[in-house]
Amino acid sequence: MDQIQHNFIDVNGLKLHVAEIGSGPTTVVFLHGFPEIWYSWRHQMIAVAKAGFRAIAPDHRGYGLSESPPEPEKASFSDLLADLVGILDFLGIDKVFLVAKDFGGRPAYLLTVFHPERVLGVVTVGASFPPGPSVYIKNLPEGFYILRWQEPGRAEADFGRFDAKTIVRNIYILFSRPEIPIAAENQEVMDMVDPSTPLPPWFTEEDLTAYGTLYEKSGFRTALQVPYRSINEQFNKTNPKVEVPMLLIMGEKDFSFKFPGREEYIRSGKAKADVPNLEITFLPEGSHFAQEQFPEQVNQLLLAFLTKHV
């Protein structure tokens, strides 16, 4: 971890934090989800650097050590795409491999379809290209966590009862379960986790402190806007097909795999209609955080893909 360097660069009027390790000729950019920051890719960054690649992991705007936009409630996925392009331009990098999970898959997808000349290949952990979550959640009840967090003020009131470390702790425990997080009618999402519940065995108190410290700085305003309140953002792209090589690492105990219609889309081969060069590997015990839960397995799959397509 000590070898990872931390830099701040000016992109689109904001100071964005970028963690970096390695000096190889080929760059791998890691895009985090929620409730994560660059740190969620720590195992993979070190592994690809040792294999001769340059690893870069930004904190999205408003996350971790990256500056928040002046009006977080107006942040969008278009901003994240512009930030990603800006980071590559600032660093003078023409083409990259992208590694993404959770909502980090959306800016990865957008860069791939709008700027395919800049993408060598894509690896996602649990995030399929397209459709996005909005397609799958239409038939879920109102207690579904995304619907709750889309409601103005509701998550703010729920989160406001706890410190940042407890919020991250609860979400990590909740999202590590195989069941879709759905609160009861008179229950808040944070109350779905009993305070006595232990952390997942692969997530240490040291890890939790790292996350908690960074969310203490950033808060959750931007995080609630992107992804949850921007989930239905539309993009004008006539051909959404992804032509670059792609690997999907899908944990079979990732709760998002149970979104209505999603497993069928992935297993049936329909996903390959949108991504012709798609490979899929299933991790039978993999949760929503497979890259932290099974770092060695994910690293092996990632390095095999990179070596094949470099």
Q: In which range does the helix fraction lie? A: 25-40%
Do you know the CATH topology? Rossmann fold
Q: Would you tell me the structural class of the helices and strands?
A: alpha/beta
> Shape, please?
globular
Low-confidence stretches: none
State the name of the first-level CATH class.
Answer: Alpha Beta
What's the main sheet like?
A: 8 strands, mixed
Q: Provide the CATH superfamily.
A: Alpha/Beta hydrolase fold, catalytic domain
Q: What is the β-strand count? A: 8
The span between the termini is 25 Å
Strand portion: 15-25%
| Count of DSSP H/I helices | 13
Spatially, the strands of the biggest sheet line up as 1-2-4-3-5-6-7-8
Number of separate structural domains: 1
Taking all Cα atoms into account, the compactness measure Rg is: 18 Å
Organism: Vitis vinifera
Protein name: AB hydrolase-1 domain-containing protein
Family: Belongs to the AB hydrolase superfamily. Epoxide hydrolase family.
GO molecular function: hydrolase activity
Q: Can you describe what's shown?
A:
This protein is α/β, with parallel strands linked by helices and 310 residues long. It has a single domain, classed as Rossmann fold, CATH 3.40.50. It is 36% helix and 16% strand. The protein has 13 helices and eight strands. The chain has an eight-stranded mixed beta sheet, with helices on both faces. A hairpin with a 2-residue loop joins strand 1 and strand 2. The protein is globular, with a radius of gyration of 18 Å. The two termini are 25 Å apart. The model has no long low-confidence stretch (mean pLDDT 95).
